[in-house]
Design goal:
Strand content: 15-25%
Helix content: 40-55%
Radius of gyration: 22 Å
Structural class: alpha/beta
Distance between the termini: 69 Å
Length: 289
């Protein structure tokens, strides 16, 4: 049966309204310099880290000349983790931060024992490594096993999303995220979740590639970022596109002052940041009061 002109016209209007509604509910976000739908970004970022997981630490060494190790040491030194703590490291699948937190706690425990303290210093200590990418977690578990930590109950490996954490309210003494918050779709949601899971007095620390302001250094940094890093990714990891995304995503990330404001807007107090290497990276921190 043929449709009448009025019916066809009504159908066209309904289709147009549905298409319009779909556009309204599918907001755009950035994937590097590209604009993509929000629901696509997490999969695209997941593909990046699935691709680079096996060479992630090697590439970090090449790209930073080994400096990323010192930056991570600095992050944990500002955290001051203590025996008995519940600590959450988000987007930390390879275990780099978690291992440092554990070493710091063990150091405190050793000093206390030498001082004659008899408390069960590590009783209740838990370090949760949360990452959305199972391939990154597999790398971390393998590294833990190589360090003799494969069966250590203190280290807990959890597959999870920074924007929707599975941990209870007010359950963590500390929260760290290193080179990860830049990749989430909604930074404000990740910050809100960090605030939610922290106890009163809990500390938030974020290590992230940031923005260089000094003109000469910025010029050199931009050349290195766009000309050297993607080529290095192709040579070392066999993946130029993922490292092209890396350098583009850094430029899309909020500048230091704006990101500090976002942390404060999430509810944190005593918000501050420290630039390292002229702003190539920055450590942001805040406290839940």
């Amino acid at each position: 049966m043929a449709l009448s002109a009025s019916t066809r016209k009504l159908g066209s209007r309904v289709s147009a309204l549905l298409a319009s509604s779909s556009r309204l509910h599918s907001h755009a976000t950035s994937f590097g310099f590209k604009e993509v739908r929000e629901e696509e970004k997490s999969k695209m970022v997941g593909d990046v880290f699935t691709s680079v997981a096996s060479s992630y630490d090697l590439m970090n060494d090449f790209m930073s000349g080994g400096l990323h190790r010192l930056w991570k040491d600095r992050l944990v030194s500002k955290l001051h983790p203590f025996p008995g703590t519940n600590h959450l490291d988000v987007a930390g699948g390879t275990g780099d931060i978690a291992f440092r937190v554990l070493e710091s706690i063990n150091s405190v425990s050793s000093r206390a024992l030498r001082s004659g303290l008899t408390d069960e210093l590590e009783s209740g200590t838990r370090i949760y490594v949360c990452d959305i990418n199972p391939n990154m977690l597999s790398v971390g578990k393998k590294r833990a096993a190589e360090r003799g930590l494969g069966e250590n109950p203190i280290l807990q490996w959890v597959e999870g999303d920074a924007e929707a954490l599975s941990f209870p309210d007010d359950s963590m003494d500390g929260y760290t995220i290193a080179f990860g918050i830049r990749n989430v779709t909604h930074i404000e949601k990740a910050l809100s979740e960090a605030y939610r899971v922290l106890k009163r007095g809990g500390r938030f620390l974020c290590l992230e590639l940031s923005h260089v302001e000094l003109p000469i250094l910025k010029q050199l940094y931009d050349y290195y970022s766009f000309s050297i890093i993607p080529a290095m990714g192709k040579l070392v990891a066999g993946d130029q596109d993922s490292y092209q995304y890396l350098v583009e995503s850094i430029r899309q990330f909020p500048k230091q002052e704006l990101f500090a404001k976002m942390i404060a807007d999430a509810g944190f107090r005593k918000v501050e940041y420290e630039n390292l290497v002229g702003g190539v990276v920055a450590i942001h921190s805040g406290v839940k009061l």
